[in-house]
Structure formats: C-alpha cells, structure tokens
Amino acid sequence: MIDRINKLQDVFNLSRKADFVAPLLLRAYLIPIFWMAGSQKLSHFSNTVEWFGNAEWGLGMPFPLLMASLAIATELGGAILLTLGLATRWISIPLIFTMAVAALSVHLKNGWLAIASASGPFATEQSIGAIERLDRAKSILQEHGNYQWLTENGPLVVLNNGIEFAATYLIMLLALLFMGGGRYVSVDYWLARRFRQSHITQNLKG
Asked: Per-domain residue ranges for the chain?
C-alpha cells in the first residue's frame, strides 16, 4: 500500500517539470484586468481624480491627483510587466496594495458577493433586497417587454460589488509574489539565469 502511494506521489512529482504553467496562467489572467482598469481610469482622468478626492461619494483620499496617477501607472505598468514576466515580484507589491485599498475602501461595505444572491452563506440584507427588486423587474419585463430577447445572451443579474473579485485578484498576486513569473516564460527567469551564471563564472575565476 505504501509503495503504491509513493509511486502515485512520484507521478504527481512529474508535474513539477511544468511548474511554469501556473504563474504563466496567473499572469495571463491578470493582464487584461489591470490593463482595462488603468485604461478606463486614464480615459476618464478628471472624473477619476474627482472620485479619488471626493469624501461624499468617492474615496476621500488626500492628494487625489497624485493618488489617481499612481493608481493608473501601477495598473498599466503592472499589466505590461506581467506580460513580460519582468520584475514580477516587485510589481506584485503595489498591485496587492491597490487591490487591498479597493477591497477595503470600495467593496467591503457591500459584503463578499460580486453578484447579488438571496441565498448562501454570503448573502446579506442588501443582496437579498436586490434579488427581490430583480424578481420584480423580471416580472415587469416579462409582462411588458420582449423578455426572451433581453435574456438570450445571459440572465439578468444585480451587481452587488462586494470584495469577491478584488480579494481573488489579491490572492493571485500573492501567489505571484511568492512564485515569481515562472521558469522559461518570463524575462525574470532568463535575467536571473544569466546573472547567476556570470556570478558563478566570476567566482571560479577568482
């Protein structure tokens, strides 16, 4: 029995030869997310700055022009660096900070769920109320609108805007912080390999 378990474990260990796939997929997933987030902020820059600084309906941050510029640079620069697999661990740190700020200042008050649900362990009074209103909207549309056409590309939902997505991206970035960009498919790997070889050669000559 023990021998069979060990053999099975040996088979699993073979997957380590492809351990570069996991960080590659994490990077590929996050690249468009941060690129679109940064691009949208940049294309509506004045509104973004106002949102960062407004205490009533925005984030109420000091130095909103600076903070908005840093957020945009982090997201766009992060997308580029993740694409290259360059400075992966370094860029993960400000991106993690950005996700933490978003989760705590924007999404936390809405609970966990990104999409409202009336059931499950993460349902709140807000999400339950949203589903009640959604059901009412559906009944109105079914009676007075072309409901089949409205829903043929997907069901109607209510955005709850909880921390689910921000927390997920933060966890993915934490994984990249620990793993790096991955072997073979990142500039980091080839730079480290070259400098490591140069260091070994210099030590041998010394």
From this structure: 21-109+163-206, 115-160
pLDDT tens per residue across span 168-187: 999 999 999 999 999 999 99
In single-letter form, the type of residue at position 165 comes to F
What confidence tens digit (pLDDT) does each residue in 132-160 have? 999 999 999 999 989 999 999 999 999 99
pTM, rounded to two decimals: 0.87
Tokens 């030869």 -> residue: 17
Spatial separation of the C-alpha atoms in residues 22 and 101, rounded to whole Å:
26
Helix pair angle (21-43, 164-179), 10° resolution: 130
When the pLDDT of each residue in the chain is averaged and rounded to a whole number, the result is: 92
